[in-house]
Amino acid sequence: MFSFSDHSDFSSRRCVWVNGPVIVGAGPSGLAVGACLKEQGVPYVILERADCIASLWQKRTYDRLKLHLPKQFCQLPKFPFPEHFPEYPTKIQFIEYLESYAQHFGINPQFNECVQSAKYDEACQFWRVKTVSTTGEVEYLCQWLVVATGENAERVVPEIEGLQEFGGQVIHACDYKSGEKFRGKKVLVVGCGNSGMEVSLDLCNHDAKPSMVVRSSVHVLPREIFGKSAFELAMFMMKWLPLWLVDRLLLVLTWFILGNIENYGLKRPSVGPLELKNTQGKTPVLDIGALEKIRSGEINVVPGIKRFWCGMVELVNGEKLKIDSVVLATGYRSNVPYWLQETEFFTKNGLPKAPFPNGWKGKAGLYAVGFTKKGLSGASADATRISQDIGKVWKEELKQKKQRVPTHRRCISQF
Ligand SMILES: Cc1cc2nc3c(=O)[nH]c(=O)nc-3n(C[C@H](O)[C@H](O)[C@H](O)COP(=O)(O)OP(=O)(O)OC[C@H]3O[C@@H](n4cnc5c(N)ncnc54)[C@H](O)[C@@H]3O)c2cc1C
What reaction is this protein's catalytic activity (predicted)? Predict the structure, then answer.
């Protein structure tokens, strides 16, 4: 370990030189990069603000969650899911898989260490990554910085008039675990993406009375079409057909299976589901039972919110509903702009400017993994590219030094 204290800013921040990349985030993306770097023989350090790997899955998801896509589209590089896992592994199984992934590749992130800022220092040509943890403040110096903090790092909480006056329980979907606590209650679920639909379904299954706010349009597709996953079928058709035609076919098949969802207050976007995903990153909802509950009236679909009153919500159509609780299934956002001092590679929303598959590499040793809007398969593709890119430079540098191990490998990197 090569570390020293820097008193220049009158604080006692420890400085650590990392021989290899610093990876920020120990979710599936950070773990995938760690595993691929290991294969390339490149040491690294992973910094994670939580006290465990995959904190999104372990701490911020509901109990009934299963992978939305079949397991073959969700496995990380170089380590398949166990064969006995079902087609759609449960959240617990996915966490188990990630734990064995980390163990298999000997990945040991530094937990409880939150990255507060990262900046490229032109003068010394290193990244300066500052963290805070329970044991103090540290500044890491490194040649490569891999951003793996995810598209879902922070919750989005919209400002809605009167929410302060409402008086009942208001939670974000990331704090929702199960409908058990809501038994018999009238719950307003704000949002109709995969989370909003599944929370509403879960509430029904626990004898609560959900009303789901559908402000704009949404694509709902069956999770399976003729026994095959809709996603797999779409990927298959894309090999032969143009995107617009695949979109049309998907919508026709959906109409046969689910009927006309507009009959239930769900408006379809004018753009097809795959085109919408590609252009705006909006994921279609894969129905796993919520639509049946909407059809039977157990989930009440309501239009946008005008404002909240004490114990009540007023909708844009003037209707007023008495409610006990609110679940905000209003999504997540990246936190990159809050800590990465860089404007060339990332947008102000914290996503790479270049679209997939080109948004993984920036300048001066900056990389991004898991920002493709393509879930775990996109993260795996990024991780493979990043590790090969860094591995190439690493091996060239080693060759140039004409020695097997560089002299400065006195550091905290994992190997
Ligand atoms: C409810 C839900 C269900 C989903 N289901 C699927 C699915 O079935 N299939 C699929 O492909 N995708 C799914 N996704 C998408 C999901 O985002 C990915 O599966 C996956 O979790 C992304 O991994 P990641 O490592 O990029 O991000 P994350 O899992 O969010 O991990 C990022 C890590 O970075 C850490 N971090 C953030 N900021 C800092 C900081 N400043 N310093 C240090 N550490 C930091 C976080 O604590 C976190 O552990 C789902 C998402 C949600 C919310």
Answer: indole-3-pyruvate + NADPH + O2 + H(+) = (indol-3-yl)acetate + CO2 + NADP(+) + H2O
Q: Is 24 in the pocket of ligand 1 (CB under 6 A)?
A: yes
What percent of the chain is modeled with pLDDT above 90?
86
Q: Which amino acid is at 129?
A: V
- Ligand 1 centre distance from Cα of residue 306 (Å): 32
H helices of 105-239, in order, are 163-166, 194-205, 230-238
Superfamily of domain 2-153+334-399: FAD/NAD(P)-binding domain (3.50.50.60)
- Amino acid type, 298: E
Instruction: Please answer whether residues 201 and 288 qualify as being in contact, where contact means their C-beta atoms are separated by less than 8 angstroms.
Output: yes
> Is 378 near ligand 1, meaning CB less than 6 Å away?
no
Looking at the CA of residue 339, tell me the nearest atom of ligand 1.
Answer: 41
Give domain 156-328's CATH number out of 3.40.50.2300, 3.50.50.60, 3.20.20.300, 3.30.70.120: 3.50.50.60
Among 282, 261, 264, 260, smallest CA distance to 273 is for 282
- For the chain, domain boundaries: 2-153+334-399, 156-328
Task: Tell me the pLDDT tens digit for each residue of 266-323.
Answer: 999 999 999 998 888 889 999 999 999 999 999 999 999 999 999 999 999 999 999 9
DSSP assignment string, 230-241: HHHHHHHHHTTS
Q: What is the pLDDT of residues 32-57, one digit of tens each?
A: 999 999 999 999 999 999 999 999 99
Asked if residue 32 has its Cβ within 6 Å of ligand 1, the reply is no
Instruction: Kindly state if the Cβ of 381 falls inside 6 Å of ligand 1.
Output: no
